[in-house]
Amino acid sequence: MMTKVLTIYTVIDDTYDAYATYDELVPFTDAFDRCGCDISAIGSVPPSLKPTYQALADLYTQIEEKFIKEGKLDRLYYAKYEMKKLARAFFKEAEWLNVGYIPKCDEYMKNANVTTTCMMVATTSLSFMEESIAKETFEWMINEHLILRASSVINRLKGDCIGHNLEQQRKHIASFIECYMKEFGGSKQDAYAEAQKKITNAWKDMNKDFLCSTHDKVPTFVLELVINIARLAYIFEENDFASAQSEFKDKIIVLFVEPVNV
Q1: Which DSSP string corresponds to 69-82?
Q2: pTM for this model (two decimals)
């Protein structure tokens, strides 16, 4: 189920990022935000985006059926909460791109911490777990505590450093690199150095929040889930996951197909 979620959100990211017009995204986002991706709102979605909206609505119907079957319907609220939040953040980027606005670094990062999808992935994957998870844990998750923000920073800045050259070859929202260069008048290398400093500090924040955690009601496996999402950023090198070619396939084969010599 999580694979389905990640796949459809990759399509939605590209929809906001590259393929839909701004005028198409206005009603598309409204359908997300107002109706929680209920199929009843598909009439207001532009024809070109109906297949994408239909696929997402079908997915959340499957998720709802799964939760009903397992007696965990209360978890649907949190999965949809993060879905709506992500759609609003994607749309914010579309608004910036539409008017040619390059935000300051802090403004960019506040929104980018959501569009990196770490918060959606963490909350949604938590909702799919078999373990008994208290409402307080889900509330803690959607309140974006330090460890989760730090994980998001790592993924966003690693992705920006790796992918911004490719992205800027077409019309694309400014990455952290461009935001830093415009705000501070620095070079690209200065921006890389600042991004790396922020990544280092984010790891310190995450480790401190994990090792000295006062989150008494949050199980350790939930904190580990958030850390593991940050670790994902380190499997990508010259290409991000959307543009990786054979080198990523080779890594998968080594990890999961080829036998280990003992």
Answers
A1: HHT-TTHHHHHHHH
A2: 0.88
DSSP state of 102: -
Burial classification of residue 153, based on how many CB atoms lie within 10 Å of its CB (0-12 exposed, 13-18 middle, 19 or more buried): buried
CB atoms within 10 A of CB 166: 14
In angstroms, the CA 13 to CA 172 distance is 12
Where would I find the H helices in the chain?
A: 2-14, 22-35, 50-70, 75-99, 105-115, 118-128, 135-142, 146-167, 176-184, 188-211, 220-232, 246-256
Name the band, by pLDDT with cuts 50, 70 and 90, for residue 33: confident
Higher local confidence (pLDDT), 252 or 70: 70
164 band by pLDDT with thresholds 50, 70 and 90: low
What angle do the packed helices 75-99 and 2-14 form, to 10 degrees?
20
The closest alpha carbon to 122, from 91, 92, 78, belongs to 78
CB 88 within 8 A of CB 191: no
